[in-house]
Write a structure and sequence with these properties.
Blueprint (H helix, E strand, L loop, with lengths): L24 E10 L2 E11 L4 E5 L6 H8 L7 E6 L2 E2 L4 H10 E4 L11 H11 L5 H14 L15 H13 L5 E5 L10 H13 L3 E5 L3 H7 L2 E6 L2 E6 L1 H6 L4 H10 L1
Helix pairs in contact: 3-4, 3-5, 4-5, 5-6
Bound molecules: adenosine-5'-diphosphate and magnesium ion (MG).
Adenosine-5'-diphosphate (ADP) binds next to strand 2 and helix 1.
Protein name: Amino acid ABC transporter ATP-binding protein
InterPro entries: AAA+_ATPase, ABC_ATPase_HisP-typ, ABC_transporter-like_ATP-bd, ABC_transporter-like_CS, MetN_ABC_transporter-like, P-loop_NTPase
Main location: membrane
Length: 263
């Protein structure tokens, strides 16, 4: 992957082969409990190819749980989740393939602490995608350059700043050539001065056409990058709309209260 600069996302003419008419991700009547706690209540949601969805809502409303059900880190009690028209596999090889298609970046930097940045990048592409070391290294260096941390490749994660680690986490997820990227509050554990360097990478990815679901309270990002905002509270989706509509004219009292606290 050397040569002229290629986009970090799938972009135009990318590898994605989807039916333009059906959603890339679809949750239909999804329910989930943790014991007696009802965490997801009749969740209906679709994300189209290339769409950027921002999910906001108070702490404990089920945003992380919803994200985790999409790559099957959490099971659901009932309902259906489809990726590219296919119901989520339950286990085995199919599940591994799905996980490769759904990239995820969490709040806490989840790099392997005892591996170099380059090893963090190449492990899964070599194991799951069966890439050669040379190809995996080339792709990794290319992606690290795109997120601006190629000079850190031989370092250990602890030697990088939080913002750099989070950019590596994004690059590492992209190395699997995912169809969709899930971000669960990727900047909320960062020192304030590092937030923008991570959001800038996300905005670039959005501009290049990546399909994204982003749990974030970064309103600047939502206004710049989101096609749609979803507001969750108490396990339900209460509102859904264009960013400007939602932020300026929230309809429900819950959303009005929530926005008055964070804006
Ligand atoms: P959010 O991301 O919106 O803050 P979460 O999805 O993390 O919300 O949590 C939703 C609810 O589920 C919360 O009440 C939380 O305490 C609970 N919860 C989350 N994960 C677990 C778990 N593994 N076991 C039991 N309860 C959980
Ligand atoms: Mg959460």
């Amino acid at each position: 992957m050397s040569g002229p600069r290629t986009p970090i996302g799938p972009g135009e003419g990318g590898t994605r082969q989807t039916d333009g008419n059906r959603p890339l991700v679809e949750l239909s009547h999804v329910e989930k409990h943790y014991g007696s706690l009802h965490v997801l209540k009749d969740i209906n949601l679709h994300v189209d190819t290339g769409e950027v969805l921002v999910v906001v809502g108070p702490s404990g409303s089920g945003k992380s749980t919803m994200c985790r059900t999409i790559n099957r880190l959490e099971s659901i009690d009932s309902g259906v989740i489809r990726i590219d028209g296919e119901p989520l596999p339950q286990e085995g090889k199919e599940l591994a393939r799905l996980r490769a298609e759904v990239g995820m970046v969490f709040q806490s930097f989840n790099l392997f602490a005892n591996k170099t940045i380059l090893e963090n990048m190449t492990l899964a592409p070599m194991k799951v995608r069966h890439m050669s070391r040379k190809d995996a290294d080339d792709m990794a260096m290319d992606l690290l350059a795109r997120v601006g941390v190629e000079s850190q490749a031989s370092k250990m994660p602890s030697q990088l700043s939080g913002g750099q680690q989070q950019r590596v986490a994004i690059a590492r997820a992209l190395a699997m050539q995912p169809k969709i990227m899930l971000f669960d509050e990727p900047t909320s554990a960062l020192d304030p001065e590092m937030v923008n360097e991570v959001l800038d990478v996300m905005i670039e990815l959005a501009n290049e056409g990546m399909t994204m679901i982003c749990v974030t309270h970064e309103m600047g990002f939502a206004r710049k990058a989101a096609d749609r905002v979803v507001f969750m509270a108490d396990g339900r989706i209460l509102e859904e709309g264009r960013p400007d509509d939602f932020f300026e004219h929230p309809k429900t009292k819950r959303a009005q209260d929530f926005l008055s606290k964070i804006l």
